[in-house]
Design brief:
Helices cover 8% and strands 52% of the residues. The protein is built from 10 helices and 40 strands. The strands form 7 sheets. The chain has a 22-stranded antiparallel barrel. Strands 3-2-5-6 form a 4-stranded antiparallel β-sheet, with no helix packed on it.
């Protein structure tokens, strides 16, 4: 695959060279770019010709020149991070030079720079009909976020967490709901399956990410069955009009090293573009904490990894061709490869590096993506977009489940080495999305259809642990075949009722069909493994309203329904046991939801204030539980159940301020409340029955604070994350010790400083600078995590960015 990727990139570069010729006009453009407020020159600003792909970058003194521009009237645009773009019209004459001078106004909150697509139509952040929060590529650099997990930390209403002390399984929660309720998309495509979601937040690098858009609540009307809580859309970069090369090298303690390279170019006509990137992220295993009931007991080593060792590679390219076939059209080809190996467990004598030992988890992931996107404009009113994505995701994993079960059923004797083999998962998915947009008067109509298909094959070794079974102690290989097919169609009308009022009604219909079938290589149960089948058709409407109360105040409301099919649970795949360890009955009902958001935003030049109220009602919420007696008799350890109805609600408050030049301050805080309708069955007749109504892992309060100071070529940032109390289940091997713990509030801080010297930037920083650690740790429940389990991480690096 790697050889194929390299060959394809070389072929594309050759094609780019072949088509790079153009007629020369000798029409020259000269000028400079300044700040309107300070009259200082802005180095490295981008300048391009509107309606074309011709562009350049200002030099270190803020001056630029462009050669061979088209003759006649042209609109020239200058832009730079932190400033509003400026357009100036000029008349270009062959053989002559023209001067143009830009003065850019500051836009510290990116309100008129970043284009978002929360409605699958383009808007600036300030004008988007459905409230959308954006993490820009510049914010990724400032946070030193090299993967999506780090990028999403601190986004209001979002919480990223790790749920496994031994393999560092990571997930995202939006407004209190788990990863299974959040649709993660890449360029609008739902390519983030249950298998990918287990470690995907850390595996998706940010080397090719332009921005991340977050749309909360009622997302199913456009994004499909998993968008109950909302959608996270990762938008990748397009080749820049300005040729560029960037490279980063970063080193940190505990072997936390990053190597990043990217390059972007277009031919001289500007109609063919190519960008490539490569990213390598390594980190060693960390042993910092041990089992204990107090922080002092926890704060010691026990030779068991708290952070797994990982070697991660991201490699990809994007190839763009404008006007390839009919004119006013664009073809985009993308390819991406993700390869990771992670190891964790007992660290003494490198014990964890042997994948078939007790207390060890060893996971290899190979993921390959191919995307083709075609866009065709029909005049200024109509647009057709056709996007196809194919994903091949493979995982090879070992943990000690089979070994421990064998030891416990064979008087601590070990199995035959020839029987030891990894859990294997092989998933192939294809997503095709077709949309057609039409601008008719004050209506912006969008019609769409989407098809999703997935085939997942799994195999693993298991032992019959039911002591009442005549097959007790028998080893067997179990094979699971899973499939899912889903077709959706949607329609939306973005109706500009008045200059101040926008109404966006929409509806989506989905038909979902999926099933699972299990077989074993020998008979170990008196009954065959049952098959599961699901078929469901769901209709989900959505209504969004935006009203501009004044020039600076915008009100938005968003309400709709959602649907979650009982397929592709990440916990199955996290346990590396999608075979007969987790049971899903065909009688399992899909979740449905009703949700609403109401927000008010004040947009000032130096102050932005936002308030967002959210509410979601879940019917037939699906949850993970121990298998009941009937299911255990079929050989299953766990099962999925429709446990109850649930409600999550809360208020989010955000303030961004620019009190003085070069100083930005941001504060956000959220009040949350999430409960089931009734006490959970597993905790009835215990002292935890009353608090079992609270949805686990949902903090009552969350927040963050950010201070950025950017004098001249320096950048200083202090960033803090706050988490209030929450309830978390502790499921002990000794049933009497099981409990629901109420955690204590805490706050962690990260800091970073950088200095630019021309095209070179030096930086250093630290995460969790006050070395905060979890105050209780239990090794018999890997999911008992609610705070950091290792301390401060330091790093330093150098970044080089060359533009022409």
């Amino acid at each position: 695959m790697k050889k194929t990727t390299i060959l394809l990139v070389l072929t594309i570069m050759c094609v780019t060279t072949v088509f790079s010729q153009k007629a020369t006009t000798d029409a020259m453009l000269f000028g400079h770019v300044k700040s309107k407020e300070t009259q200082e020159h802005i180095p490295y600003a981008t300048i391009f010709v509107k309606g074309t792909k011709l562009g350049t970058a200002a030099d270190g003194t803020g001056h630029f020149k462009l050669a061979h521009l088209p003759a006649g009237k042209q609109t020239i645009i200058a832009q730079y991070v932190g400033y509003k773009p400026q357009e100036i019209e000029v008349t270009m004459t062959p053989g002559k030079g023209t001067e143009v001078y830009f003065e850019l106004e500051e836009d510290v909150f990116n309100l008129e720079q970043v284009v978002v697509t929360g409605t699958r139509t383009q808007h600036y952040v300030k004008n988007v009909p459905i409230r959308t929060e954006v993490v820009t590529s510049q914010a990724l650099k400032n946070k030193n976020a090299w993967n999506v997990f780090e990028a999403l930390e601190g986004v209001p209403g979002i919480r990223v967490e790790q749920q496994c002390q031994f393999c560092n399984f990571s997930m995202v929660r939006m407004q209190g709901l788990g990863a299974e309720h959040t649709q993660v998309l890449i360029n609008g495509q739902p390519v983030y399956s249950g298998l990918a979601s287990v470690y995907g937040l850390e595996q998706i690098g940010t080397g090719d990410v332009d921005r991340i858009e977050v749309v909360k609540g009622a997302g199913s009307a456009l994004y499909g069955s998993s968008a109950v809580a909302g959608a996270i859309n990762i938008i990748t970069k397009e080749p820049s009009p300005v040729p560029s090369i960037s490279a980063d090298v970063q080193f940190g303690n505990h072997g936390s090293n990053v190597y990043n390279f990217s390059s972007s170019m277009r031919n001289t006509r500007g109609n063919i573009g190519l960008s490539i990137y490569a990213q390598k992220i390594d980190h060693d295993a960390i042993d910092a904490t041990a089992e204990g009931s107090t922080r002092s007991e926890v704060n010691r080593k026990d030779s068991i990894s708290d952070r797994v060792a990982s070697k991660l590679h991201n490699l990809g390219f994007s190839f763009y061709v404008n006007d390839p076939f009919f004119g006013d059209d664009k073809l985009v080809l993308r390819g991406k490869a993700i390869n990771e190996k992670r190891e964790g467990g007992r660290m003494a004598d490198d014990y964890y590096k042997n994948p078939f030992t007790d207390g060890t988890e060893n996971i290899t992931t190979n993921r390959y993506e191919a995307e083709m996107n075609y866009t065709k404009q029909f005049g200024k009113k109509f647009e057709l977009n056709f996007n196809n994505t194919y994903i091949h995701h493979k995982r090879e994993a070992t943990n000690d489940s089979y070994l421990n079960d064998y030891l416990s059923t064979h008087n601590d004797s070990t199995p035959n080495v020839l029987d030891m083999r990894p859990y294997l998962a092989n998933e192939k998915s294809f997503i095709s999305t077709l949309t057609f947009g039409a601008k008719l008067g004050n209506h912006n109509l969008l019609f769409g259809a989407q098809y999703y298909t997935s085939r997942l094959d799994e195999s693993g070794m298991y032992v019959v642990v039911d002591s009442t079974s005549k097959y007790f102690g028998n080893s067997y290989k179990s094979v699971a075949q899973k499939h899912a097919d889903e077709f959706g169609a949607f329609i939306q009308d973005e109706w500009q009722v008045t200059p101040r009022l926008t109404v966006v009604p929409g509806v989506r219909i989905d038909h979902h069909s999926s099933g699972e079938e299990y077989t074993s290589d020998k008979k170990v149960f008196d009954k065959d493994f049952p098959q599961t089948r699901f078929k469901e058709t769901s209709v989900n409407p959505r209504l969004a309203i935006k009203y501009q109360l004044s020039r600076n105040i915008t009100l938005r409301a968003n309400a709709g329904t959602g649907f979650r099919a009982p397929y592709g649970f990440s916990e199955d795949l996290h346990l590396c046991s999608g075979s007969p360890r987790v049971w899903k009955s065909s009688e399992l009902k899909p979740e449905t939801s009703r949700s609403a958001n109401f927000s008010a935003d004040y947009y000032g030049n130096h102050l932005q204030v936002s308030a967002n109220v959210f509410y979601s009602y879940l019917k037939n919420k699906i949850d993970f539980a121990d298998a009941d007696d009937n299911v255990k008799n079929l050989g299953y350890t766990y099962q999925w159940r429709n446990v109850d109805d649930a409600v999550v609600q809360g208020v989010e408050l955000t303030v961004l301020a620019n009190p003085v030049r070069n100083l930005n301050v941001g504060v956000d805080f959220a009040f949350n409340h999430g409960t089931y309708k009734n006490e959970r069955e597993d905790w009835k007749e215990t002292k935890y029955q009353g608090i079992s109504k609270y949805i686990p892992r949902f903090p009552t309060t969350t927040g963050s604070v950010k201070v950025e100071y950017t004098p001249s070529t320096w950048h200083f940032m202090l960033y803090g994350l706050y988490q209030g109390k929450m309830y978390i289940d502790y499921i002990s091997e000794n049933e009497e010790m099981s409990k629901i713990k109420e955690t204590s509030p805490y706050m962690t801080f990260n800091a970073r400083v950088s200095k630019r010297f021309g095209i070179v930037r030096l930086y250093a920083g630290a995460n969790n600078i006050f070395n905060y650690l979890q105050d209780e740790k239990r090794l018999d429940d890997a999911a008992f995590m609610y705070a950091p389990v290792y301390g401060t991480l330091f790093y330093g690096g150098v970044s080089i960015n060359i533009t022409h």
